[in-house]
Amino acid sequence: MSRHEAVSDSAEARRGFLAKLLAVCCGGLATLPPLVAGAWMILDPLRRRGAAATFLPVTDLASVPDDGIPRQFAVVTDRVDAWTGFAAEPIGAVYLRREQGSDTVEALSATCPHAGCFVEIESQGKCFRCPCHNSTFTLDGRIVAPSPSPRAMDGLECQIAKNGQIAVKWQNYYTGIAEKVARP
Amino acid sequence: MKTQPTQRGREPIATQKRPTTPGVLGQLADFFDDRTGYRALVHEALYERVPGGARWRYVWGSTLVFAFLTQVITGLVLWSSYAASAQTAWESVYYIQHEMTGGWLLRGIHHVMAQMMIVLLALHLMQVVIDGAYRAPREVNFWLGLVLMMLVLGMALTGYLLPWDQKGYWATRVATNLAGLVPLLGPSIQQLVVGGPDYGHHTLTRFFALHAGFLPATLVLMLVVHLTLFRKHGLCARQPITRPDAMFWPDQVLKDAVAMLAVMAVVLGVILMPALRAMLEGRPIVPGELGAELGAPADPSQPYAAARPEWYFLFLFQFLKVFEGWGASGEFLGAIVVPGLIMGVMFLMPILGRWQLGHRFNIAFTLAILAGIGLLTAMAMNEDYAALWADRASFADVEKLLEETDGDATKIAAHFGNDATKIAAFSARAKKLDRIRHSQSFLDASEQAEADAARSIELAGRPERIPPAGMLELVRNDALSQGPKLFAQHCASCHAHVDPAAPNAASLMAKASAANLHGFGTAAWMRGLLDPKQVAGPGYFGNTAHKEDDMVNFVQNDLTDADTWKPDDIEAVIAAMAGEAGLAAAGTDPAIVEKGRGLIAADDRCGSCHTFRDNGVAAGSAPDITGWGSREWLIGIIVDPTHERFYGDSNDRMPSFGKAEEGAAPMLTRQQIGLIADWLRGDWYRPATH
Ligand code: FES
Questions:
Q1: Does residue B72 sit in the same domain as residue B186?
Q2: Does any ligand 1 atom lie closer than 6 A to the CB of residue A117?
Q3: Tens of pLDDT along B188-213?
Q4: Among A122, A130, A154, which is best to mutate for testing ligand 1, by the most ligand atoms less than 8 A from CB?
Q5: Is residue B71 over pLDDT 60?
Q6: Rounded distance, CA A133 to CA A120, Å?
Q7: ipTM (interface pTM)
Q8: With contact defined as beta carbons under 8 Å apart, do B67 and B120 qualify?
């Protein structure tokens, strides 16, 4: 006690403040590394990109009858999910459609532009209908109003090789917005 | 150490009062009390004053704590058997549900109690608002309660994905896509939650970490503060107080405990009800089918038309449909703005509640929201299940007219002589019919989902177990699951596949333009082919280019000649052909098969056109029927029917599914063709007991 008495009031206050500051700093600094490392790792998915959109062979022209009715095809490609590599794995589906007598094919992604469910052809075969919130689309993918979906079904680029092979440029788009914006 | 011969309770009262050392247990208790002061703590915890006496309306908070504890206990044990990854999640949940002792019960409790918690939350919230228990000084505790509610909802949402079945997978896709609508940060939030650009391992590991780590840990912290504040302010008694006060222990605790028991009884009741029903109907009880269901494993390439969130989120799901035709702003409003505003108003309740009018508003608001939720849920259910109680037959005329006119508005108008009222009445009924149809497709999809789930579970139980690549590989290689889909997509535009005895067989076969392949390879199919009345019918060559070919001619003219072809001979040929396919009925006499083979090979009978085994007939005039209907033969004809081994140049319209030009991929892979062949032959895994 006697030592304390010798110290002046202001000096003690200063010392007290310094001690508090130091305590907070040291403690804070010690806790920072796990927090920073944690945040760093948790943000990892932000720098992951999906595979670049490429043309993937889907089927050949003979499999798409020219009757204006869309047919569903799986899109198959090699896929990486974190540490697992899948060879030739179905990653999604497209609808291909050919008008009567036409040699060109239209491709529509089966992913609903509303919130991402799997759009199906309605039981009567007259239109597309999403089983989730009933968004309805014509067979060429246009919106049938009133629809919860903010935009038409997403068309995909399509190439037909000389030998009849149909390749589709597979791409995911953001859902729920009016514009068709590709996901990175 | 001094020992005491008798227990404390048995001692006469006088000795208890003496300041002598109590029994061993008593000493131990003193020891700990000296060092921790636990007696005072326990006393404080139990001897809380309940103004106006214990009441049933105060039990909701306690039942919620109880429900949460149940979830912690069952959740930890589930955790001990769960493996979060895209190739192990479904598999480990399958193992818990169907193979581990008591797994169905534990998972059932976890699943049903989670739903119970939502109900209890609603009740607790309602009680707090109606009693005005959010008013000063309890505002902060009310806000904590709202945060706790959101945490519980978050745990419900994240838990739904963990089994990695179709149901959870598709519901989560929708939920995370909606999260992406949050302005500016949306896409990043979505990517963080999903764990990358695509759904997979890291979606599961992240959801699991949220479900079993972050969220419950936060919840426990908040709960501790919530309860501490609750004790600090005391119970907010129902006014006016007319009865004498009571103590928390045992009066209120008794009521709480009875309520907990009731909650648990309901949970067990929900789990065991199907077992009771099975017992009453004399069906065997399969424990794996009780409690929580497990759908088919998640497959991003497989449509799932029965996608629905858990019932307590159904109102949000339905709410999105309200904004039909609003474009992007509608979805943003429905998924983000309106729910956000509602939460905002709830956070303001303690402030609004300072005024009597505000309090009334709060009550009205809460009731209105709950009523709205109830209404939306009922609407969603009605949309999905309307076909169950609707009388579709009464719409037959609408259906007929729609079919006749192809839905063309002018034609319909003409049908009604342009009578506006009639047209309006008709279109109203057409709308109703559309709803019924829509509901029917949901019901069909649910039925399909159930069948897929049952098949997955059957496959997982094979003696060979699940391969390292996971359940999906097994499902994708299962002829029973994939065959019908592949057939529908690639074969059904020409071929029928219908049991000829089915009531709608005639119409389906008439629509088809190639043979009915139901039972292909069996004696029954062959008997039909060799039947002069059927061979040129729609089930065989009737709708094909071969309808007047040699084979039809042979069956109709040669086979009917009873001198050369005795009925026994024909039966022998049928038996031998089914034998080629490997599909002969059990107990077929080998001698008959041998005789049939001889007849087939003979150059004055089948062998006059067909190559068969070593009869030396050159390929080209008719298909080689060696091994007809076998897996290898079927794969061969699907790969390339124009091969000289099959139809050669006279192939009708059948595509060569397995042949492709240089550099191009064939229409079907060998594996897919194999699946079609296996399915046609009825060759798929069946559990031993069937
Ligand atoms: S996801 Fe298709 S309508 Fe909502």
A1: yes
A2: yes
A3: 999 999 999 999 999 999 999 999 99
A4: A130
A5: yes
A6: 12
A7: 0.91
A8: yes
The helix or strand, by DSSP H or E, that contains position A89, with its residue range, turns out to be: strand A84-97
Q: Answer yes or no: is the C-beta of A75 below 6 A from any ligand 1 atom.
A: no
**A165: how many CB neighbours lie within 10 A of its CB?**
18
* Window B:358-397, CB contacts with A under 8 Å: none
Smallest CA-to-CA distance from B638 within A166, A70, B522, B630 is with B630
Note the pLDDT tens digit of each residue in A166-183.
999 999 999 999 999 998
Q: Name the minimum distance, in Å, from the CA of A62 to any CA of chain B.
A: 8
Q: Quick one: B293 and B316 in the same domain? A: no
Residue B28 structural domain: 17-44
Ligand 1 center from residue A118 Cα (angstroms): 8
Q: Which of B324, B332, B408, B487 to mutate to test the interface with A (most CBs of A within 10 A)?
A: B324
Domain boundary among B307, B334, B367: B307
Distance, CA of B438 to CA of B430 (rounded, Å): 12
Q: Which residues contact B176 (CB under 8 A, 6 or more apart)?
A: B190, B193, B194
Q: Is A135 in the pocket of ligand 1 (CB under 6 A)?
A: yes
- Amino acid letter for position A125: G
Using the mean position of ligand 1's atoms as its centre, give its distance from the Cα of residue A111 in Å: 9
Same structural domain for residues B269 and B214?
yes
Token pair recorded at residue B265 = 């009884």
**Hey, is the C-beta of B468 within 8 angstroms of any chain A C-beta?**
no
CB A76 near ligand 1, within 6 Å: no
Q: How far apart are CA A33 and CA A26, in angstroms?
A: 12
**CB of A132 closer than 6 A to ligand 1?**
yes
> Do residues B96 and B294 make contact, with C-beta atoms less than 8 angstroms apart?
no
Q: Are B594 and B579 in contact, with CB atoms under 8 Å apart?
A: no
Largest CA distance in chain B: 120
Angle, helices B338-352/B139-161, rounded to nearest 10 degrees? 160
User: For residues B674 and B657, is the Cβ–Cβ distance under 8 A?
Assistant: no
Distance (Å) from the C-alpha of residue A148 to the closest C-alpha of chain B? 4
* Model confidence, pTM: 0.90
As for how many domains chain B has, the answer is 5
